[in-house]
Design brief:
Layout (H helix, E strand, L loop, with lengths): L26 H7 L3 E8 L24 E6 L10 E3 L2 E2 L11 H19 L5 E6 L11 H10 L6 H14 L26 H14 L31 H14 L5 E5 L1
Parallel strand pairs: 1-2, 1-5
Antiparallel strand pairs: 2-3, 3-4, 5-6
Helix pairs in contact: 2-5
Length: 269
């Protein structure tokens, strides 16, 4: 709604003006009204560019659209080393004096801490985490560790198009797309890409850290010192409508093998 075109080329026509009307509630608004703790981590490309400064207004920021907590950047892209980073609506600069800092790792750490803290304080409160890595969008800034890790996998030794065919075949095998699906022909106008690095695997790894932290969350001890009886349900139980347990496990293995980009939006409790 309001984003028929990206905000940078918005027009004055309805549906293309980069404004989400107040009466068109986001998933954050809906879940918050139903008792969920709501949060947004990563890329926010929904705030109009002319409202993206600290002068506001902030009704089109995540905090104004039903998300109680926001940790991320505003705009279509950002450097992963020195992003225009915000906590809620306050600009923060954790990378200053910290040359090894990278947004993908920091964002996962922040999301995990948020979920752990919420589970300690309000163990019965359901929560929704909207997790949107910016790593798979330009300018592509993986850490040296992940550049080496992907290079050692030799994914691109036969060229980008060959890898594209391999990923497509894996998706068919896993049932992600129908058997009669056909791979879109590579446009003749575009050069064959077989040399660029890729940040998607690191984004997947950091997103996976957030997911796998959930089953380890525990209820705080009661006043007698005994742990609470009820353990949080694993994330997979909330994803049954998307994948059966085996399919989710296979999809994760596939993604790690193929360096597929990922973004995660998952209701968790």
């Amino acid at each position: 709604m309001g984003n028929g075109a990206v905000g940078e080329i918005a027009t004055g026509f309805p549906g293309y003006d980069s404004i989400i009307p107040i009466e068109k509630g986001t998933i954050g608004t809906i879940l918050k009204a139903n008792g969920y703790a709501t949060s947004w981590f990563g890329k926010d490309h929904n705030t109009p560019s002319y409202q993206s400064s600290q002068a506001g207004p902030f009704n089109q920021w995540p905090n104004g659209m039903g998300f109680e907590y926001f940790y991320g950047f505003v705009g279509g892209d950002a450097g992963q080393w020195q992003p225009n980073l915000f906590r809620n609506t306050t600009a923060i600069y954790p990378f200053q004096g910290n040359p090894g800092w990278n947004l993908e790792t920091a964002m996962a750490d922040e999301a995990i801490q948020y979920m752990k803290q919420l589970k300690e304080i309000a163990p019965d409160k359901p929560f929704f985490v909207y997790y949107v890595p910016g790593a798979t969008h330009a300018p592509h800034h993986p850490t040296p560790e992940w550049i080496k890790k992907i290079s050692d996998m030799h994914l691109f030794d036969d060229g980008r198009n060959k890898l594209r065919e391999t990923i497509f075949a894996n998706q068919k095998r896993l049932g992600i797309m129908p058997e009669n699906a056909k791979l879109t022909p590579w446009p003749k106008e575009l050069p064959q890409w077989d040399s660029l690095g890729f940040a998607g695997e690191e984004a997947l790894h950091q997103a996976s850290r957030c997911l796998w932290s959930l089953p380890r969350l525990r209820r705080p001890r009661d006043r007698s010192g005994h742990p609470g009886r009820r353990r949080p349900r694993p994330t997979r139980q909330h994803l049954d409508h998307l994948h059966r347990r085996r399919q989710w496990r296979e999809l994760g293995r596939y993604a790690r093998r193929t360096s597929s980009p990922t973004s995660m939006a998952s209701p968790c409790r």
